[in-house]
Specification:
By secondary structure, the protein is mainly alpha-helical. The protein contains twelve helices and two strands; from the N terminus they run αααααααββααααα. The chain folds into two domains: 112 residues, no CATH class; 66 residues.
Length: 250
């Protein structure tokens, strides 16, 4: 059985994807964070099954090849480059959350890594004591007090909730280092590389997932704990009982 400790360890060693669409209906009443309710369970399980099938057939094999044949130094450079592209959006969201120091630090990180760091392929800023931060508009909405709403598994994009899905829309219009280049092929290449790089970083979690009696319930609890950690800057309120109970309650 999975424990909260294993969830936190897994959550802190990963990052999840984000970007793009979806609707949602009768969420006039948003459920509280870590609620046991899962009103969209039928849709979510179908979407989870689709995503799992696509991952096993295509994404995971490509990620394994990427990890196996791409030198670690190159993968680190790609990771730094991708992180640097997201720095302006992080700075904007930190500002919206009232984290003025973090916004200034992230802006300075972007400037240093984009120049001395060779377009972000080297993380020079960390060696200078400027800590990496990651903020998105879903986190901003949470800090503003918006409840998370129903858990939602997006086709292709994976775990989310109503609030984070809504947060994806303005996120697309926040400043980005490549947003001024109007080239569809570049967007496809960029997001394909992002998916490949992040999936390769999650390969070590596959054995943990395969041990779960119900991977869907595990991923639901995992995502909620992961987002709590992000929203509360790594120090979420104690939710041990509700989280562990939610693992095996549908």
């Amino acid at each position: 059985m999975v424990t909260l400790t294993s969830l936190k360890r897994a959550a802190r060693s990963s990052s999840l994807l984000g970007a793009a669409l979806l609707l949602l209906m009768q969420a006039g009443c948003a459920t509280p964070m870590l609620s046991h309710d899962d009103p969209l369970a039928s849709f979510n399980r179908a979407s989870h099954a689709f995503n799992t099938g696509l991952d096993q057939a295509l994404v995971k094999p490509l990620a394994i090849g990427y990890q196996r044949y791409t030198p670690a130094m190159v993968r680190r450079s790609i990771g730094h480059f991708l992180d640097n592209l997201g720095a302006p959006a992080t700075a904007a969201n930190a500002l919206l959350q009232g984290k003025l120091g973090e916004a200034a630090s992230t802006g300075l990180r972007f400037l240093i890594n984009s120049t001395a760091g060779l377009l972000g392929t080297m993380d020079v800023a960390t060696t200078l004591g400027l800590t990496f931060h990651k903020e998105d508009f879903g986190q901003t909405l949470a800090r503003w007090g918006l409840p998370d709403g129903p858990y939602l598994v997006l086709p292709l994009l994976g775990p989310s909730n109503l609030r984070d899905t809504v947060g994806m829309l303005p996120q697309r219009y926040l400043p980005d280092a490549l947003s001024s280049i109007d080239e569809p092929a570049l967007d496809v290449a960029r997001y394909s590389l992002l998916i490949l790089h992040r999936r390769s970083g999650l390969l070590h979690l596959d054995p943990l997932l395969s041990e779960q009696p119900d991977p869907y319930l595990f991923e639901r609890a995992f995502y909620r704990q992961y987002r709590l950690d992000q929203i509360h800057d790594g120090a979420p309120p104690d939710s041990r009982g509700s989280l562990e109970n939610s693992l095996f309650k549908d």
